[in-house]
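ASSEMBLY PREDICTION REQUEST
Request ID: AP-0331
Submitted by: J.K., bench scientist
Number of chains: two
Total residues: 544
Priority: normal
Notes: Please return the full assembly, not individual chains.
Input sequences:
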Amino acid sequence: MCHRWPPFAKLFTAIAMILAATCVPITHGPLVGIVACVIFFAHTLARIPLAYVCRRLLFFWPTLFLMAISLPLSQAGQKGWLLFVTIFVRGTLSFSTALWLVNVMPFDQLLATLRHLRVPDVLLAIVSLMYRFLFVLWDELDRMRTARSARMFRKPTLWETWRSAAHLVGRLLIRALDRADRIHGAMLARGWDGRTRWIEQRREDRP
Amino acid sequence: MHIQDGVLSPVVCAATGAISLGTVGYSVHRLKQSVGDRTIPLTGMMAALVFAGQMVNFPIGAPVSGHLLGGVLAAAVVGPWAGCVAMTLVLFVQWALFSDGGLFALGANVLHMAVIGAWGGHAVRMFVQRFFGGSRKGIVIGSVIAAWATVMAAAALFCLEFRLSWPSREIDFSKVFTLMVSFHSLIGLGEALITGVAISFVLNQRPELIWKMGTLARPHEGAGKSVHPPIATITRTLVAGLVIALAIASFLSPFASSFDDGLEAVLGKLNLELNLTGSVPGLLEDYDRIPVPVAAWQSIAVSFAGIGGTLAVFVLAWLLGKALPAAPPQLSEAAGE
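STATUS: Completed
Returned structure:
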């Protein structure tokens, strides 16, 4: 049911939850528990599958763990472990909140909300263009990878792998810039004069 | 590389956020000034490219692999202002689509990867490039050194932010820093190598794509005339000096923080820990017999990472510059347009 909330409500709920998760001291156990419960409740309200959240957390935890484990490792006492737990709990809670926002708020809606919050038009225009062509570039990258592995007859040495991967990035760069030129031409053909115009949002997306 | 929410304290997040907001706001301002109508599609595509380029994996060891960060590359193609904006948007989309990195830590991430990566990287590259008189070799060598210096500068800043976030007297931050710095010197080497090879590839194939002052307008109409005034050399030198100083500081940070509690205290702590770990049979027993004090070993390790890393970057820069064929005259003229 969170999906139908007005976009502003979703964004500010998420910000408030992250704020609560990062500011409550870990020593206030019950308070942290309440924040965790609220976040969990939001997930169940939005019907986000638990298995999905767990899978994302499994990929997320190692990076957080690496960052947090350095504290107790450098100090044998209890203080280090307390900080470790603090970082770990805060990180996990705010990550799940962000995950909730990602799932209840489509990206276009987020951009529309930001536009109403007076984020500069240039930024939004660039980011919507980026979002549009991100997936095109991913597909292109995929095709180039396939082509590369089809051309390789033996297992490459480490240096060759590196070189070909860096060439992949360079080649993708050249193709992307050529594509940007074509897009620019197409935009000019449709009367682009450097100003950004937005199509009025659908009713349910309007903040 | 992305800092998550909760790793830094709210105050540090607010401070870094304010700095980033200022610098990115200034970048947007400069970008608006310099727009041809081509800026928006070009910057958007560059941001998408950095995002996609980060998906290309570079194997390091069996399970570990690195990837491109892209600040220096972005600045080399679209210039420091647009590069900074593009990197900021990449970080924002990574949060908004994949919840990668934190919302409040976004300020710190932008500071590390967009501001230092694009602005700082551009300044360092220009600074180094001056010694080569703007030749193509200079561009490659400059970007290799810039890529490495920006990663190390970001590591130093992260250490500082981490230290300020948890102001506890009992924690020996020097070890945290040792871990961070040696880890980042690997990342920095990878970034330098990837950026160097990618840029020399682009220079070989399409040298006109590398950014010159004010050529973000369309190539045929923007030829020759500079759209916005060049950045003052003195500012650029200052920024470059700052980034390089930070990179050097990252190697000094482990020593600096161990000064305040003294060598003896460190040794005392280490003995305690060695006694704890010594109970593991056979594994760590020899530690007691090594005549070198562990604190000294630590400094040797960091110095080694620092000196070795620096040397490796310079050798890399030299090799890549050497491998680049001398530019035929008509190509360098095309690059000058």
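REVIEWER COMMENTS: The domain at 10-260+292-336 of chain B is CATH 1.10.1760.20 (Arp2/3 complex 21 kDa subunit ARPC3).
SIGN-OFF: pending second reviewer
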